[in-house]
Structure formats: structure tokens, C-alpha cells
Design brief:
The complex is a heterodimer of chains A (about 675) and B (about 325). Chain A has about 675 residues and is an alpha/beta fold. Chain A folds into three domains: about 260 residues, Rossmann fold; about 170 residues, Bifunctional carbon monoxide dehydrogenase/acetyl-coa synthase(codh/acs), Chain M, domain 3 (2-Layer Sandwich); about 230 residues, Bifunctional carbon monoxide dehydrogenase/acetyl-coa synthase(codh/acs), Chain M, domain 5 (3-Layer(aba) Sandwich). In chain A, the strands form seven sheets. In chain A, strands 4-3-2-5-6-8 form a six-stranded parallel sheet, with helices on one face. In chain A, helix 5 packs across helix 8. With about 325 residues, chain B is of the alpha/beta class. Helices cover about 40% and strands about 15% of the residues of chain B. Chain B is built from eleven helices and ten strands. In chain B, the strands form two sheets. Chain B has an eight-stranded parallel sheet. In chain B, strands 1-2 form a two-stranded antiparallel ribbon. The relative contact order of chain B is 0.15. The chains are: A alpha/beta (about 675), B alpha/beta (about 325). Chains A and B meet through helix 5 of A and helix 4, helix 5, helix 6 and helix 7 of B.
Amino acid sequence: MTDVPIAKKNGETRLKTMITTIKHSVSYDETAYHLPISFALTGIAVHDQKAALDVFGKTDSNPLVASECILAEKTAAEGRESAPYTGFIDDTIIRKLGYSLVDGSILGLALVVGSPTSADSASAICRELQEKYMLTFLAGDIVPSLSHAGVKLGLEYRLIPLGSTPAYGIHFVDIIARVAMMFGGVTPGDISRLLAYAKERAKAIVIVFPGLSDQEIAFVDGMRVLGFPILSLGDYQGGDWIPATPEEVVRLGMEQKGIRVNITAIPIPMGCSPAFEGKSIRKEEMYVEFGGGRSPAFELLRMRSADEVTDGQVTVIGPEIGTMKEGGAYPLAIIIDVVGKMMKKDYEPVLERRIHNFVNYGEGSWHVAQRDIIWVRISKEVVAKGVKIEHIGKLLAGKFRMDFPQLLDAVSVTLITDEAKVLEAKNEAEKVYAERDARIKGMRDADVNTYYSCTLCQTFAPNHVCVITPEHPALCGAISWLDGKIAYEIAPSGANQPIEKGAVINAQNGEFEGVNKFVKKASHGEIDRCSLYSVMEYPMTCCGCFECIALMLPEVNGIMIVNREFKGITPSGMTFSTLAGTIGGGAQTPGFAGISKNYILSDRFLQGDGGIERLVWMPSQLKEELKIQLIKKLADQKKPDLFEKIADETIAISIEDLISFVERVKHPALTMKPLV
Amino acid sequence: MGYDLNFGWNGVIGQVILGATRAEGGTRNISYRIGGGTTLPFLEGTPSSPLPLVALEICDNPEYWSPIIRNYCGDLVYSVHEWAEAAEKVYDADLVRLYLTSTRQRNFTDISAVGKTVEAVLSSTGLPLIIEGSNEPKIDSEVFLKCGETAQGERLLLGTAEAGRYRSIAAAALAYNHSLIAQSPIDINLAKQLNILLREIGVPRDHIMIDPYTGALGYGFEYSYSAMERIRFSALKGDTDLAMPVICSAIDSLTIKEVREAEPVLQDEMALQWEFYTGIAAAVAGAEVICVRHPKTVGLLKKAFTCMRTSTFFSEVK
């Protein structure tokens, strides 16, 4: 066993001596970057010993610099190695390599050095690297070892033999240094940008077989500073090298560096595209159905640990479609297990909702609702083409990986069609649903420092900015704070951006310095102030998607709400659609606000305007929809009789009727601070 | 006229350099600095910004081109070499925009031909070039690599990057120091998002031109106009992610109903007028480069721009 820290120390001393013995002038042809590593680090063009020592001193005796200079001198003195070895690679080829990296046709770079003990495992590793679209550079005995095993080498095979000893591996670093300067906008001498580029952009890993000399160990270990994981296959101990077995080394390295293989096609016998999303499957077109009140069915997405999930695995427990009768309703459980370094338990429900979209992407599969009230159909047409239950699983596994490449590393799907087992699993799922509800319900605006914006609607409401907080969902009701958070993590340049709420300006109205600053910018300078909990003072802008409109009725000193579904006239003298036309389009209209239904149940509801006691009127249908939760909430707030004091269209359509009603029931709004 | 033309704007539209002369490492006779405006174009009494440039669009396989242009240009369209030469010498265009329509043939694989076409066009004109790559994601990578490589040093404008399809073109721009066109479907937010995506991949701001997608007059141009206006206002208010010059190409003008169904003797004139007025409107919205296909539109637009700048246009109209 070689002790890495000790070998590294010896190696560094040796390199230090060797660099002082450089006699010849050193330079490579066909590059504009001199000795690229030295040039990138310091901006100094090294051509002789003096400059080499200068750079070496300026970089705190960096072993990469020493290795580069020493190899350059060796090449100058002895000439290039003969084929198949490439030695130093020209700028023109680097440009093409860099192109493939930016373009995505190469996912990452790997350096494999040393002497493999078995040619078979070496060729298996390289084949795996090829399959995973990695561009692999080789240095040392690995090269003859692969040649003997019949592995073809060369740029076209994405396996590039740099040289006959591991020391030639330094070219791997000079390639990355040049890619950073050509593509990364790194100016020579800007060490911090270079390191940042190497760490964040260069997707590079290093695999080390046994047999490295001390100075080669020093050079390999020197690459850690660039953020490349060093994976060792035996014979090394200590230091920060990651021990691995030949079977796992590629996966481990790619995971360490966050390199992911993208899925581009899902192998199922039916089309799969958002184009099919709106297509429904009518009863006469359907082969079988699941759920929808006709049979037990549910769906659940769970976060698991890495060893519990095999990526892409689809398991069907119970009868397959072949044994199901045409037109029948069968039980179904859709259980999706996911793993991801960035995955969080909070994301489960958000991802779970995507099952709906994905199943509908299938040409002959259809899905409605969520959780344990789902309803799924598969069409006769695609069953005739050979679609089975299993393929729905494949579709889901594939789509989740495709759409969330940053978030999910592995996805497996279990589909249960056996009734007893579905019911058993459903009990478990229901516990999870309850836990989730409790988790989201418990969140308070004061608990978090970051809110999320939504500017999705700026396509038609140019200056509209939604501010989404745990207790204030987007006014369309479709995006909660958690949704905003996950949307941002998935698409960091998308329509949902984090807002640091900053210092409190007005706690009652929910006005924050950070929010104002953000809104000012995101509204293109149109809106200066925004209070989250007030209809009266600087309310949020309205796009056009709001579920409800809250507006003041000065005659009763209160606020009424009308939801989109209500078609009639309201005590304001206007219908929903007239009101919507007046306040929408991204404007801020004091006295009016677009809100979501859930916000009515929030403790922050109308906080700035005196709270829920201001509420004087809402359509009976909305009242009915919120009844159970609203009564409970009012009871908790010790206002049990308020619910009956909120009028609806059966009580009052005109403002006159409303005035006499609120006076008769002694509505608390009447005695509150005047609204205007 | 009594209007206050100071809007309190403090932003500046970034500049993109197209073309490189021999002194700059290329072989063009001229290079342009596009952009740099601080207000809307053609406003009376404001510092005059440079006139919009007019690009003539040509292609290397006329099978995919409008019959109106084929009729007008005759045999010219069968030689991309002569067509490019005529764009400069006969039709007086400021830029040539080459569409590699040959790559649209089914199962196209002859990438080396792409290189030859680009070389041919570069040798037949001294004008800076805009090159439109393939329409097929599968061959994007090779086509853009070939274009970028062949014209290294010429500072091309490569088209067209879209939200789902920008990597190959960005790679070609980065590798060979070209600029690119970022197109979004008439949507300010998507335009901004694409610019951010391009920035994240490493394309500098001064290598991007925005194509807001241009509908023909009467066929959605009002949406394009509105998107362009908002993009420009945001840029002038200081949004650097949108502060790029704009390129417009109203190619739909040649296929709209009025042109298609016009009497044969009037068809050419109808196409010309439609393209001209769409181009004028796009320039008024702030576009820095207007692309047209009818050779006669080039001269008309250039004349109109000159008149508009000196305001004589308005007095002529009166």
C-alpha cells in the first residue's frame, strides 16, 4: 500500500529539484497559450528555466506547474512519443473538444492513469466511460493494457492515449486550462476565475490505477485544487482520494462531480409528448380504467436513500393488462421512489403532482385528480399496439428523469394491481398525505426569510409580480410557496425567483424592504411599494388569473369577495368579469386585490385592513366550499358567530340590501376603523 | 413638437460587432458596430442613432425559397456565389444572411458541403455574414461546428438559438468568436430567460442579438411590435439582460394571403410592399437589423431610413 500524503510530500520535493534542472528552452507548437497551465495561472509565458522557476515560485511551488514544465522540457529534448500517443494536443482540436462539451455531446472528461492489474476491468471501466458520453484521456500502462484487450483508441472512440507514463496525464490539466481560457472567458493570470471555472464548469474526474511514482502522485493530488474527485483503485491509502472498486468507480466519480446522463427517448410502444396532454379517453375508447370511484387507486411519490432505488426499474405487482377484461375497472397503486442529492422531502408533493402531466403525455393514457382520488384510463388503441401497465411505469420513470435531471439521480416505479396489496399500501399512503398537510399547514410567513416571486403572467400582464409566501399563495391558487421554491431550484432562471424579504417596513400590512426592492425591479420600475396583507394600501398587482377578487365596500366599511365561478352581479354593482377587466393587466389598484381561495383561510388574510372581520359578502357557493375550514378557523379565533354574518347573493345583491343586513346582524366591520 | 422626449432612461443598448476586416483578423471589407442606442429611433431632436442595417437573405437550395423571389431573381438563385455577389454589388445590401436550406433535405449528411458553401459566400462578398444553420436538431452540432470553423475570424452572426435548442450554436459562437441570434416567440420573459441561459453557458452579452420573432403586418406584427417595444423599454430602463440590439426578419410577408392570392401581375409588387412596410414598422420599434428577401426592398428601406432620420420623410408625406 502506498501512503498518499507521504508519497505526495516526497514527490513534491523531487519535483522541486527537477524543475531547477531544466536546461533546454521549452515550448509547444500549435498553441497560443504557451505552457497552458502556467500561463492560465500567472499570465506568464514560460519558455525557459527562469520563467518556469518564476511561475513555480509565484504559485507556491505548485506540483502541476512543475510537472508541466518538466514534461515540456522532456518533450522538447526527446521529441514526441510515437503513435498511438498524442502527447500535447493542438489548440484546433481543443476548440472542437470544447465545442462538444458546451454542445452537450460530451458530458464530461475523465483522466485514467496508472497500471491496471487486470486488463478486463480496465476495459470495462473505459467502455462504461464511453457509454456515459465521457471523453477519456489515458496515461501510463493503461494504454498498452487496453490495446492488448482489443479496445480501440483515438478521438473518434472518445479514448485518447496521452502518453506512456502517468506523467503525461498533465496534458489533461493543460487541456482544461485552455478550455477555460477559450470558452470560459478566463483571462490568463486570473487564478480565482480559473479555479472557479475548473470547480463549477469543468466536469472532470480522475481514476487512478496502482503504480504511480511519488512525483506522479504529487501531480495527481495537485488536481484536487481544481475540484476533480480522485478515485483510486487499490494500492493507495490516506489523503483525500476516494477508494473505489472497478464496478462502481465510474458511477461514483460521475456522482461526485454531478455528471448526469440525460434520457432522450422512452422505449414504449406509444407516443409520449405534451401534445397528447389535452386528449381525453372516452368510455368507448377505453380498454381499462383504474380508480375514479370505481376501484381503489392512489399515487405516491417518496424520497428514498440511494441503496433503495435502482434507476429505471419498473415493477408490476399483480395482474398485467393481458388478464384484464376490456371495459373493466381495476385497482391501481402508482408508487414512485426517487433519489437525488438535491432532493428534499418537501419536494415530494410537488413532484407527485407531475404524475398527472406525465401520464397524460402518453398517447393512450389518461389521468385526472391526485392522491387517493386518481382516475386513470388506458385506450384500446394503444393496448392493441402492445402497451401494458409496465409501460406506464417506464413512461413515468423516464419522464421524471428527463424533466428533473438536476434534482433526481434515480427513479424507480412500482405499480400494484393486486387489490389486497393496493389497499394495504393505500393505508400507508394516507398517513404520508396527512403528514404532508400538517407540514405545509404549519408554515408561517414569519418562519422564513425568503419568499418567491412569480412573473409567469408577464406575458400578458407586463408589470405584474406575484409575491408568494407560505401563508399567501399565488393569486391564481396554483402555486404555493413550496412550489415556488422547487420551481426556482429546478429552473434557476425561470419565472419564480427568491425574494429576500429584508427589513420590516409595516408588519401589519406585510410590507418589507426586500420585497419592495424586488417588485420595483421586476415590474420594470412601475411599482414602488407592495403590501402583502392589505387590499387598501399598496396591494399586490393583479394579472388576470386570480381565483377571487377582494374589494372594499365603503358603504359598509367592509370588504367583499367574489370568485371567478360566480356569474351574477355583486353588491359592488359589478360582476366578476367587469371587475376583473378593471383591475387586471398588472396594475396596482388600491381597494381591490386578486386573491386565491386558500388565502381566505390564511391567518394573514386582510391583516392590514383589520382581519377577517372586514369580510361582509361572498357568493354562497364559495361560502359552501370553504365552510368547514372557515367555521373551524373562526371558532379558533373566538369569532364563532361571524360566519353567519357574512352575506351572500341569497341575502343581498344590492348595496342597499347589504347595508340593512349588516346593520341587522351587527356586523363587526361597522364599528371598525373607517376604511377610507 | 412640444413633446418631452426625455423619459428618464439611463440604459444603453449593448454593441455587437459583426464582420472583421483584414486589420481585424478577417477578410470583410467592412465591419459594423450594431447597437449603442440610448433612446428610440427616429425621434426628432434626439441624438441620431445609426440607421438600421438591411440584410438580404439568400439560400443555398432555392427549392425551399419563395417562388416570388425565384421569379424575380431568375437563375441567380441557383448560384449562391453569384447571389451573394449581387446582394452586395447590385442590390446594395448592408449584410448578407445565408440560409443553409440544403441541410433541410431528408437525411442530409454532407457536412463538408456546408463548409464549401460558406467559403463560396465569403469569397463572393466582402459584406459581414449572417448564417442560418440547420433546421434539424440531429445535425445542428456538426453544421454549426462547420460554419463556425470555416468562418473563424470573420465574426459571423449565427442563427438561430431558441430556448430548447441553443447549445450547439452557443458552442460554435464561443469556440470561434462569433455572435448569435437568440429568438423567442414574441415574449419578453422568454427573451430574457434565453439570454440568461446563454450567459450561463458562457456567451458574452456583446455576442447576442435578440430576434423577438416578427410576424407580417396584419398577421401578428402588432404582437411583435409590442414585444419589441417592451424589450427595448426594459433595456433602456436598465435591464442589461435585454439590452441587446434587435434583428427582425418578416419572412412571413411573402406567404400571406394577400400576396398569394394577388393577381399574377401584381404579386411581385404586393410582396415587395408588404415586406417594405413590415420592415419600416420593425425599424420604428427599434430593430437594428432588418432582413428582407426581395432584392428591391433593400433599396426602398435604405432610402426610407435616410429620409426618416432627416425628417424629410414626414414633410414629403404631408
